[in-house]
Amino acid sequence: MKLHRPHQPITIGTQTIGQGLPCFIVGEVAQSHDGSLGQAHAFIDAIASAGACAVKFQTHVAAAESTVQEPWRVPGSGQDASRYAYWKRMEFSEPQWVELKCHAQERGLVFLSSPFSLEAVDLLERVGMPAWKVGSGEISNRVLCRRLASSGLAVFLSTGMSPWHEVDEAVAYFRARNIPLVVLQCSSVYPCPPEKIGLNVLAQLRDRYGCLVGLSDHSGTIYSGLAAAAVGIEVLEVHVTLSREMFGPDVQASITTAELRQLVDGVRVIEAIRSHPVDKDQMAKELKPLRDIFMKSIVAKTELPAGTILQEEHLILKKPGTGIPASRLGEVVGKRLVRCLRSDERVLEADLQ
């Protein structure tokens, strides 16, 4: 199934996402704040200082999305009697979400948060979202997707647990409602090993849907993001932790904020490389001063009298490359010297007959 559409840029808050534009890099906090508002603010500062474009949280309303029977993905601490209790502790109030959004904007970040229920969408809509992120577990949740589409806002669609037909259906659903879309390759493995990253899927997504694409990375390293940037993406989302010594289910799949700085810098360097193709001939011309230093010329191996018929044993290749280039040695052999050459003296065109 092919759902082609022109690659249209998308404006998210103060940022524009599109092919040929700087990659939109999102620092994903997820649950790493562990329910602490202060920690959440610390993440905003650290992600901003690392040079990312956006900070993303997750908005959980326990009573609307979970039951007390929900199993743990990663065993928690004794602080929470159940996964439901954990989600309850992760909740922030509406004024607190507003506070976090204002802080992010003050630091120049786009503020995003993934909703996991209709109640979460309502809350975030009041807070003010510039776009929506559909998590991998919600891609087939038509009730939630219908609510998100009704806002008209752009959607980042994660595909971490879905076969192609499910992604096809979700893309077609949002496209039919004229929702700007970025489709993210993602493998819902925490942490995700290299062999499951799926860089090949990025080109498949672009070809299949004619859309902007990105990587939602759970590898816990900077390498996958750098590789994806080299292939070409518009969006990169990475989980972030303040320290690997922190406690929580997302820490193993996260990079530190110091590593986020390295990742951002690396992506920007890769973008500069990709946007400046090199003309080898032009580059050689520009590097002529270096060629003269590093390349080699044909020189006399020993003192050679005028009239010598040059043989290869009479000659040696030495720097600098300002004489007859080494590549023409075969042309020089057999020529007659018209003047005497000292040892290590360059052979010049005028010396040959």
Describe this structure in words.
Strands 3, 4, 5, 6, 7, 8, 9, 10 and 11 form a nine-stranded parallel sheet that branches. A two-stranded antiparallel ribbon has the order 1-2. A two-stranded antiparallel ribbon has the order 12-13. The radius of gyration is 30 Å and the shape is elongated. Helix 9 packs parallel to helix 10 (257-274). With 353 residues, the chain is of the alpha/beta class. It has 13 helices and 13 strands. The longest helix is centred in the C-terminal third of the chain and has 18 residues, at 257-274.
Question: How are the secondary structure elements laid out?
Answer:
Elements: E1 10-12, E2 15-17, E3 24-30, H1 37-49, E4 54-59, H2 62-65, H3 83-90, H4 94-106, E5 110-115, H5 118-127, E6 131-134, H6 142-149, E7 154-158, H7 164-176, E8 181-185, H8 199-209, E9 212-217, H9 223-231, E10 235-241, E11 255-256, H10 257-274, H11 280-286, H12 288-294, E12 297-300, E13 315-318, H13 329-332
Parallel strand pairs: 3-4, 3-10, 4-5, 6-7, 7-8, 8-9, 9-10, 10-11
Antiparallel strand pairs: 1-2, 12-13
Helix pairs in contact: 1-4, 4-5, 9-10
How would you sum up this structure in a few lines?
With 353 residues, the protein is α/β, with parallel strands linked by helices. The chain has helices spanning 37-49, 62-65, 83-90, 94-106, 118-127, 142-149, 164-176, 199-209, 223-231, 257-274, 280-286, 288-294, 329-332, and strands spanning 10-12, 15-17, 24-30, 54-59, 110-115, 131-134, 154-158, 181-185, 212-217, 235-241, 255-256, 297-300, 315-318. Helix 7 (164-176) links the parallel strand 7 and strand 8.
